[in-house]
Amino acid sequence: MKRRGMLIVLSGPSGVGKGTVRKAIFDQGANEFEYSISMTTRKPREGEVDGEDYFFVSKEEFEDRIKNGGMLEYAQYVDNYYGTPLKYVNETLDSGKDVFLEIEVNGAKQVREKMPDGVFLFLTPPDLMELKQRIINRGTEDMATIDKRMKKAVEEIKTMRDYDYAVVNDDINVAVEEIKTIIRGEHLRVTRVYPEYQEMLGEM
Ligand SMILES: Nc1nc2c(ncn2[C@@H]2O[C@H](COP(=O)(O)OP(=O)(O)O)[C@@H](O)[C@H]2O)c(=O)[nH]1
Ligand SMILES: Nc1ncnc2c1ncn2[C@@H]1O[C@H](COP(=O)(O)OP(=O)(O)O)[C@@H](O)[C@H]1O
């Protein structure tokens, strides 16, 4: 029987660099896993594409989806809904491919209850000042929203212990390498990944 894919969940406060890290991992070795595109009621930012960054929907559409059991998880974050469509995740895992979710902590908790075999990663900033600076530099949120997100960040960081791994995103290249190593290690169930193992055990 074909091995079911592995679910990889990445959480962490807004602005820590989840999107940047995820894109770097995908750019370096696509096809290793599939990214699950979330649904949200948030308005698209400049440059964001519907069906690529998110499925952008109305509050009514989102609530219908919840009622119909179409969400693996969902949460209200600051002023909007965010959630993971269930069908895509199940079908992709069934096909043997890994699925990568980038979601906030309440959603991750729901996924952990439903799919405890997943690998749960928390990306954490070196410190809160640096986190705030990154959100400001990104230039996508006004100051009131930034303050709300910073308050959330403190609560989110407190849940770090619930994760299998916490990775510090100080140097982006180091964080990316650490996450890739964790994923490879989880596949093989070994504590260190030598190239020979990869050859002996085949596809990871
Ligand atoms: N629970 C849940 N959270 C999500 C989902 N998609 C995105 N998020 C999280 O919602 C929060 C806000 O996302 P967004 O407005 O795009 O801001 P950004 O992550 O700072 O770029 C972030 O913590 C995201 O990781 C989802 O499908 N479910
Ligand atoms: N290791 C890092 N060092 C410095 N800046 C970073 C680092 N990782 C990400 N950033 C920057 O921080 C900002 C927030 O990153 P982003 O990926 O949008 O975060 P998130 O998806 O977690 O909200 C972006 O402007 C990004 O370029």
UniProtKB/TrEMBL annotation:
InterPro entries assigned to the protein according to its UniProt record, in alphabetical order: GK/Ca_channel_bsu, Guanylate_kin-like_dom, Guanylate_kinase, Guanylate_kinase_CS, P-loop_NTPase
Binding site for ATP: 12-19
Catalyzed reactions per annotation: GMP + ATP = GDP + ADP
SUPFAM superfamilies: P-loop containing nucleoside triphosphate hydrolases (SSF52540)
EC code(s) of this entry: 2.7.4.8
The keyword Lipid biosynthesis appears for this protein: no
Transmembrane helix as UniProt keyword: no
Compartment list: Cytoplasm
Broad enzyme group: transferase
Alphabetic keyword roster: ATP-binding, Cytoplasm, Kinase, Nucleotide-binding, Transferase
Guanylate kinase-like domain segment(s): 5-184
SMART domains: GuKc
Superkingdom to which the source organism belongs: Bacteria
GO terms under cellular component: cytosol
MF-aspect GO terms: ATP binding; GMP kinase activity
HAMAP family xrefs: Guanylate_kinase
Family listed: Belongs to the guanylate kinase family.
PANTHER family in the cross-refs: GUANYLATE KINASE (PTHR23117:SF13), GUANYLATE KINASE-RELATED (PTHR23117)
Described purpose of this protein according to its UniProt entry: Essential for recycling GMP and indirectly, cGMP.
Protein's name in the database: Guanylate kinase
Species of provenance: Pediococcus argentinicus
